[in-house]
Amino acid sequence: MEPSIALHTDKYQINMMYAHWKMGTHNRKAVFEMYFRKLPFGSGYAVFAGLQRIVDYITELRFTDTELAYLQQQEERYEPAFIEELRRFRFSGSIDSVPEGTLVFPNEPLVRVEGRIMEAQLVETAILNMANYQTLIATKASRIRQAAGDDTLLEFGTRRAQEMDAAVWGARAAYVAGFHATSNMRAGLLFGIPAKGTHAHAWVQAHQSELEAFERYAEALPDGVTLLVDTYDTLGSGVPHAIEVARQLRAKGKELQGIRLDSGDLAILSKEARRMLDEAGFPGVRIVASNDLDEHIIMELKAQGAAIDTWGVGTQLITAADQPSLGGVYKLAAIDRGDGYEPVIKLSGNLDKVTNPGAKTISRLIDTKTGYALGDYMALREEAALEGEPLQRIDPAHPYVRTAVSVYRAEPLLQPVFRSGELVAKLPELEDIRCYHLAQLCLFRPQHLRKLHPEPYPVWFSQQLWQLKTEMIQRVQAVQGDKKNG
């Protein structure tokens, strides 16, 4: 029997599940929240992605004989009755999530899991694994999309991705954030992403001459010819040979689609190639560029007037090379000790690691006059829903500054996905997620979106949440102080 995904988790999750089961607390209800503490890439925002895979994981979550036999071999010697508990395991809790494609910010809950502590603990590792990676890639892709403007973007990262799943789901995350196509055929099959590709240097090397290679490629694929022109000499032979093949295609009623540059000074080469193509009568031939591109290089090339229409971005995107992890966390927010939920808090010597207690909601406040987002508002779940009444907001970084807002509409960001273990959300199609992401970008002022030194976007606390956090910090510190003095 093939292993299931149930053990796509850290061992300490299983050990905690066992300890709860042993102590009889495994059915105690708890609320966990997934969030990240710091924006990646020096960006002003992140793009949430990964929900589709989380839903697939939760739906398929089962322990089969293969996993149970493996667990019985562990040094912890889990009791047989615990193994049988796992055999019957099904996720029966509730999950709320921010929609994929949403612009998100530090410390606000992106995924909220509520259920038996045994099951809420199990799913931590997988949820973090899926959301961290895909959110990171979607954020990188969105930044590249902004740098490229209206140009076409191709995801070329498969061969440099850390593994097969990273390549496929990374391609999906890039598509969510505005890329137009992928080189990965499996991603195209699974998700309906357009698949694009040219040919490799090996095709040219396998022929007696560059011109012969181009001619045979055009003969084989006359309706979609893009020629890689830098195998030997880009301007001395590659572009002239491409022009020759373009003439041959036109004589047959076909047109050369493009040329690709994969090395050298892309600004100089693209401008000269554009001149040569235009003078030869082929202004419609597109110039595709690749070669370790990212948003910074694309911005530089565009500033230099590079004549590039299409950007093939691989390694720097799919590996998020300048920051290869998001650092999202999954923290306990509240637990039922027998008489209802009790908020919990974690303190730390690092102030940014102090958690926000209680099950929370997050709403995006939109200025009804301008249509721009004013900021996000975090409140305790039991607080009344926002209905446009005057609202006092607290900046947690500067709590002495308290301002009010009265002209706004509130858009709740956390949406129901699972209830009592059943999928209740109808997840949108991938094309709809792309459109939603573009609409999200339009909600934000340019200073929050710029790639360099963006203006921080505010995430405010409700008075009730801030008061609870303050009181809990003081309470915990007092208890710890008494223990030390005792």
Write the layout of secondary structure elements.
Layout: H1 11-23, E1 29-36, E2 46-47, H2 51-60, H3 65-72, H4 80-87, E3 94-97, E4 103-104, E5 111-116, H5 117-122, H6 124-148, E6 152-155, H7 164-176, E7 181-182, H8 185-191, H9 201-205, H10 210-220, E8 226-228, H11 234-251, E9 258-261, H12 266-279, E10 286-289, H13 295-303, E11 310-313, H14 315-318, E12 328-336, E13 341-343, E14 360-366, E15 373-380, E16 391-395, E17 398-405, E18 409-412, E19 415-419, E20 422-423, H15 430-442, H16 446-449, E21 459-461, H17 463-485
Parallel strand pairs: 6-7, 6-11, 8-9, 9-10, 10-11, 15-21
Antiparallel strand pairs: 1-5, 1-12, 2-4, 3-5, 3-19, 12-13, 14-15, 14-18, 16-17, 19-20
Helix pairs in contact: 2-6, 3-4, 6-7, 6-13, 10-11, 11-12
What does this protein structure show overall?
The chain is of the alpha/beta class. It folds into 2 domains: 11-137 and 324-482, nicotinate phosphoribosyltransferase, CATH 3.20.140; 146-318, Aldolase class I (TIM Barrel). The chain contains 17 helices and 21 strands. Helix 13 (295-303) links the parallel strand 10 and strand 11. Helix 2 (51-60) runs antiparallel to helix 6 (124-148), helix 3 (65-72) runs antiparallel to helix 4 (80-87) and helix 11 (234-251) packs parallel to helix 12 (266-279). It starts with 10 loop residues before the first helix and ends with a helix. The mean pLDDT is 95.
